[in-house]
Amino acid sequence: MSSVRRIVAAAALGLTSVAIAPVIAQAGPVSPQAGLVITHIKCNEQEDNTGADDAYLVVDGATIWGPVQMTTGDSKDVQRVAVPQGKVLTLMEGDWPDDDDNLGAKTINGPGDYTFTDDGANYVVTVANG
């Protein structure tokens, strides 16, 4: 019942005061927009011929995961590392004392599997909604 109707109804009953509860806006459930996260990395073929790859992931020049030693057939769950949509994700392989190897770069456009095959390697990085 609206406030005006309550006042009119109270006057008709001869009441001199009416308690009117304030109107409080009720918002729907808050669902923050989920970002993207890396959940898995699989090495189908390692790049390094002399031992395990030291794989790591880079966004905007900053390492966001790794380095982790991986060999052909290895599959690792990743602890939901955030990756911004629209950013370039680069998979690198550490080669100290030589320069590190770039195994590919992909623009992250949403959830899915991203394959990195540069320099003779074959890795799949899984990106999911966070």
Any overview of this molecule?
The chain is elongated. It is mainly β. 8% of the residues lie in helices and 46% in strands.
Throw out a few tags for this protein:
8 strands; disordered N terminus; 1 helix; 4-stranded antiparallel β-sheet; 130 residues; elongated
Percent in strands: over 45%
Contiguous low-pLDDT stretches (5 residues minimum) are: 2-6, 20-33
Question: How many individual helices?
Answer: 1
Radius of gyration from CA coordinates: 28 Å
Oligomer: single chain
Question: Which sheet architecture does the biggest sheet show?
Answer: 4 strands, antiparallel
- Report the strand count: 8
Task: Give the structural class.
Answer: mainly beta
Order of helices and strands: HEEEEEEEE
The whole-number mean of residue pLDDT values reads: 82
Assign an overall shape. elongated
Strand arrangement, largest sheet? Answer: 4-1-8-7
Distance from N terminus to C terminus (CA atoms, Å) equals 43 Å
- Please bin the fraction of helical residues: under 10%
What's this model, at a glance?
The chain is mainly beta and 130 residues long. The protein has one helix at 3-12; strands at residues 36-45, 53-59, 62-70, 75-82, 88-93, 101-107, 112-116, 122-129.
Chain-wise SSE layout:
Blueprint: H1 3-12, E1 36-45, E2 53-59, E3 62-70, E4 75-82, E5 88-93, E6 101-107, E7 112-116, E8 122-129
Antiparallel strand pairs: 1-4, 1-8, 2-3, 2-5, 5-6, 7-8
